[in-house]
Amino acid sequence: ALLENGELVPPWEVGLPPAIQLTWAIDMESWATKT
To answer: What is the pTM assigned to this prediction?
Structure first.
């Protein structure tokens, strides 16, 4: 999830459901391996 200032915020900090949290974790893993 992105805030207006562009900072990444884990879904569990904004109350999104676990399925979204898992997707976020996977996306971050993919992003980390690309850089």
So the answer is: 0.33
